[in-house]
Amino acid sequence: MKKNDNQEVEAVMPDERAVDSRAEAFVGVRAARRNELAEDYVELIAELIYAKGEARPVDIATKMGVTAPTVAKTLDRLAREGLITRAKYRSVFLTEEGRALAKECRHRHEIVLRFLLSLGLDLETAERDAEGIEHHVSDRTLALFAAFADGSRVDRRNLMGEALRSN
Amino acid sequence: MKKNDNQEVEAVMPDERAVDSRAEAFVGVRAARRNELAEDYVELIAELIYAKGEARPVDIATKMGVTAPTVAKTLDRLAREGLITRAKYRSVFLTEEGRALAKECRHRHEIVLRFLLSLGLDLETAERDAEGIEHHVSDRTLALFAAFADGSRVDRRNLMGEALRSN
DNA sequence: TAGACAAGTTAGCCTTGTCTAACTTTTGAT
DNA sequence: ATCAAAAGTTAGACAAGGCTAACTTGTCTA
Q1: More confident residue, B124 or A166
Q2: Measured at the alpha carbon of residue A47, what is the angle toward residues A46 and A48, in degrees to the nearest 5?
Q3: Which residues in A lie closer than 8 A to residue B159 (C-beta atoms)?
Q4: Which residues from chain A sit within 8 angstroms of residue B35, using beta carbons?
């Protein structure tokens, strides 16, 4: 492939490190994407059970914004993967593994949400963004988010205190 | 569907607002997910062109961690969607629309990355998380991220200044 | 208790994203 | 100028996630 045909790229100016250190990230991100839907389902099922005592496919469909057959197919997959149990024409239940996953997802979601809110975001937007972001936050970042959300007020006080003391 | 079969949900405790206000988010998130791959490709293509003068399928494949035929099929789709142009056995080029998208993605990526770094995250992790997060950040949140990243030092100074003045 | 209606399922189709295997074109070194 | 290796393409398989249409089961009310 000859290096002819050059193209102007005025608009886009990545810095040096970009091309190489970003490369490996893609693989990991795509891996994360594969589990997103399962996590969303499991989390939603847990919420429905908590809120209504059961998780019915029709409610899952409504909340997820998809049709009933889509839900059925996805639930079959989740059952195959051991996250839920189901019987024909009945509600869905989480296995131990499913509950563990739901709990973990809930935890991440809570932290991301609190973090966004503590940053000054409105609830609507925070809720929506948290839904998308929560699946892509490493443990390290999550810890930082948690610390920030919990500590932002305290930090300010500390900072002011220090400023006062140090003068 | 009778409301029998109840299940213990000790582990998972969503608060009241959760079930309803989170619902609508899913639809939006799924919409965002559809464009992620296209955005990743376009951004990568822009970077390759910038860094090497051209974007070859083989490099895209390496960076994305997939095989050549996968890249070929995806590039066909991007071409169909008007984001790139390509000729058989040649490198790939961005259309105006593709360049615009790449620029926008780059911009988001930069902000998210700077934000994560300013939060104290190491470069590796920040890079990886930014890759996943950037597609799920609303304009509102992005603005907040940008302000935080740019202003965290300034804020501290202001805060200290205020603390001093107000006493 | 009988049906009507709501909920759930099944079948079949489409698109995307992934792969391997096999083939063709381009490039570059001798 | 030739030809081997690298790059690119095509064909075909498969799973996931989505849909509509048509059928079955459960529930609840008259």
Answers
A1: B124
A2: 95
A3: 156, 159-160, 163
A4: none
